[in-house]
Amino acid sequence: MEYTPIVSCVISIYNEEKIIEEKINSLLLQNYPNEKIQIYIGSDCSSDKSDEIAHRISALHSNIHHITFPKRRGKTAVINDLVQIISKDRPGDPNHLLLCTDANVILDANCMRNLVKHFSDPSIGLVDCNMTPLTEKSADIANSERTYIKLETSIKYWEGEIWGNMMGAFGGCYALRSNLMPIIPDNLLVDDFYISMKVLEAGYQSKNSLDAIAFESLPGSLGEEFKRKMRISTGNFQNLNYFSHFLFSGPMSRILCFIFHKVIRWITPILILISFLCTFILFFQFSGTYKILLGMFVMTFFLLPIADRALKYINVRIPILRNISYFVVMNFALFRGFIQYCKGVRSGVWQPTSRN
User: Fold this and answer.
1) 42 close to 13: Cβ distance less than 8 angstroms
2) pLDDT in tens, 261-275
3) Residue 9 three-state SS
């Protein structure tokens, strides 16, 4: 018999008038028993027509709950409030699942069913979907971002399949047992990783379901992606602070996944900067090899990205130059995010990426 528990969908929205109707419809049209789907939409004081659209649709469907909040507080505060409302509506149900999803993520018709089936195994606490990016081929970073997401998905999948230690959901759409949902700190900028690690901390496994497909429109410009990656980087260092004990305790597989998949990537810009400074100092002490290394640094991190931007203005795109530019700019965004973390994060409010 197929495992079909009640699923409560949690959506925090802020000025999503361009996409919210399509989003809601993608949930209503899931190949899953409709009577077992509850949709909770929390509006973070939207100033466009998002609430008007959500209210109109919710009036037609008894399983859609539209809650508006009069003050903008950020995504994490909205999620916390929605989860509190859900827990009052459905207390003490051990099979109850939460599906956390972003407004700009459109689910394939079988996405929910393919996420939920894994929870028939009581050791599974969280399942992430297979995020498929939607970007125009002509966009600045389309190929680079698609390549990154494909590699990241593969790593997450095998972490989950081999060890049950998937290092963080993508965030666009994932499901977890409702009794494992933590209270998210108000100033946290990357809630999905925090939730994922709390599930592992509770002793449950997490994994990625490749057949649970969802589609997300990503920023087409390098500038928009820079701002997004900078915010994520700040949130990553917040999470590193919250879960620093994962570096030294717990299963060895989890420690290794955390260090080699996440921590080393987060501190890569710092390692690059240290390497550059050491090479620069040694350049004046020795000749030969260090001159070559310094030249490679200058070419990779300065000359090639400048050449790529110059060629863009005459509509010339060379894939290898674009990938190098993407690598450099994204690492600079990670470094800027680290600086912002060091300054302190007082609020969990941030501006969503521009929607097409």
Assistant:
1) yes
2) 999 999 999 998 898
3) strand
Give the count of beta carbons closer than 10 Å to the beta carbon of residue 253.
Answer: 13
Residue 223 Cα to chain centre, angstroms? 18
3-state helix, strand, coil in the chain (%, to 5): 55, 15, 30
Closest C-alpha to 73, from 181, 156, 187, 205:
187
Rg (CA), the chain: 22
pLDDT for residue 313 is more than 90 = no
Q: Report the distance separating Cα 61 and Cα 78, nearest Å.
A: 22
Q: What is the pTM of this model?
A: 0.92
- Taking the CA of residue 67 as centre, how many other CA atoms within 13 Å lie in the half-sphere pointing to its CB? 21
* CA-CA-CA-CA torsion sign (217, 188, 350, 145): negative
| Third-level CATH fold of 7-220 | Spore Coat Polysaccharide Biosynthesis Protein SpsA; Chain A (3.90.550)
SS3 category, 8: strand
